[in-house]
Amino acid sequence: MNGNCTVPVVVEGGGEGAVAHVGLHALGSFADRLGVGHSLSKSIAWTGERAPVHDRGKVLVQAMLMLAGGGEACTDIEHLRSQTSLFGSVPSDSTLHRTFHQLDAETRAGLWDAIAGVRAEVWSRSSATTGTGDVVLDIDASLHEIHSENKAGTAPHYKGGFGFHPIYCFADATGECLSETLRPGNAGANTITDHVEVLVPLGHHLLALDGLADARQGAALVADRAGSAAGPRAAVAWRGPRALGHGGKRWPSGRGGRRLPPRVPDRRR
Description:
- By secondary structure, the chain is of the alpha/beta class.
- The chain has two domains: 22-103, no CATH class; 131-244, no CATH class.
- 35% of the residues lie in helices and 11% in strands.
- It has helices at 22-34, 36-41, 56-68, 78-81, 84-87, 93-101, 105-125, 192-199, 206-212, 230-239, and strands at residues 135-141, 144-145, 155-156, 162-164, 167-171, 177-181, 222-224, 243-244.
- A five-stranded mixed β-sheet has the order 6-5-1-7-8, with helices on one face. A three-stranded antiparallel β-sheet has the order 2-4-3, with no helix packed on it.
- The radius of gyration is 21 Å and the shape is globular.
- The N and C termini lie far apart (55 Å).
């Protein structure tokens, strides 16, 4: 099946009319060059007697494009369906909805592994990384306002608003969001268990992380550059002696950070 989410096009000047979502086509073409759709397809088993009309990896990538374009619901996929000359055959909102509900825990784990494989390949070729330095992970929480008190998982927050307080983990070298944990608005920013939870999905990305940092140097591999004291404990709980801590001298970003020795004693007792 075809896992590409876009149709090859040639851009020429002097034409008439306008085409919407050209920027999303460029993003989708990049994903096709990386083979994202094909990688995801391998992790999604067929549930019917025959192959689905829409390749499920392609469906997920087109959903990503929809979200990148400002979409908020499955029905927003219709904006891509109207541009068949750019995106080819795009699934309906009901197909996208069914695809999401077919992704059980085992399938989602396989999708994480597939994305990690693509990310490892991209990072190995990226000039943003050296392949020999420590990997810095930025962990931060952010308030998201919700205008309905009936939304599940929401709560008032300390700034007087209402909504979510998710916690994110970013790769400093590339700015990518590697994982996030959705939390209610009243969740604390310094909760160690939440810091550990947002680091757990990174187990799928260890191949990429190991490609960015040379573990043979005898130094720590991953630096948790969190903006709170929960960072070092979470990092040690997640990766043990291969984690970097928090505190001490200032980082260029203004957050605390210092290198811990390869063998980190457990000071939580």
